[in-house]
Design goal:
Immunoglobulin-like, 2 domains, six-stranded mixed beta sheet, 46% strand
């Protein structure tokens, strides 16, 4: 056989074999799948809701507590622990130059603050206690003042004197209060108080339809009387007007 014919036969055999191999492979389905969207985690933010800058907080005693309230967005508060994960974390709160506190709640009690100026610094930290980059922190200055005692408003009482009787016969009052005695009877009368030999108050003798007012300037329990009729008596009890 001629070499050219042999070569031609080999080429044709290779073509047929290659074609059979291709024909035996199963067809593959090609689909256009949309890739899953990538979740975008927003950067957390927060504000100090209270105390506000320059706020004056009042306390009842020589020291007191002030509540720190935080408002935040895009943040899941968690106690420290684990790897840093954007969108999670906790706060570090420093009042003045004190020891920093770890806070994983919306509110925090700043305890035992004395009257005067104070500064609170709040930093957002990752789960692993590292700072967010860039840093996310806020600082607020405020003032603490002691509550001013309430001012006592004096009360006024009315006592009538008629037929040697004081009505009402007893008055319970506080220091600074006053009593107006009015003689509505037919005889001159007074309201006179002595304690331990010292005159505390005296209306002097009141004529018919005459009145006099006395101010109660001290704590006492006094049985007063009329200088014109010693058997006519009344009682006044005076206690402190302290509002504390």
């Amino acid at each position: 056989m001629q070499p050219k014919l042999v070569m031609f036969g080999l080429v044709m055999a290779s073509i047929l074999l290659f074609g059979c191999t291709l024909g035996g492979q199963p067809a593959q389905n090609v689909t256009n799948e949309t890739p899953a969207p990538v979740e975008v985690v927003k950067t957390p933010t927060f504000t100090i809701a209270s105390p506000t800058p320059g706020q004056v907080a009042t306390i009842a005693g020589s020291t007191g507590d002030v509540t720190l309230t935080l408002s935040y967005q895009n943040l899941a508060l968690k106690p420290p622990g684990g790897a840093a994960k954007k969108g999670e974390g906790h706060f570090r709160v420093t009042v003045d130059d004190g020891q920093p506190a770890t806070v994983s709640t919306r509110t925090y009690t700043m305890a035992n603050l004395a009257p005067g100026a104070h500064t609170v610094k709040v930093e957002l930290l990752n789960n692993d206690r590292t700072k967010y980059i860039p840093a996310i922190e806020k600082t607020v200055s405020f003032t603490v003042e002691s509550e001013k005692p309430a001012v006592y408003v004096p009360a006024s009482y009315e006592v009538t004197i008629n037929s040697f009787v004081y009505t009402p016969s007893e008055v319970n009052a506080k220091v600074g209060d006053s009593i107006t005695f009015t003689n509505t009877g037919a005889f001159p009368m007074s309201a006179t108080c002595f304690l331990e030999g010292k005159q505390v108050f005296d209306t002097r003798v009141l004529a018919i339809n005459q009145a006099a007012t006395v101010t109660l300037g001290q704590e006492m329990d006094c049985t007063y009387y009329s200088t014109t009729q010693r058997s006519a008596t009344g009682r006044v009890v005076v206690t402190s007007n302290s509002t504390g």
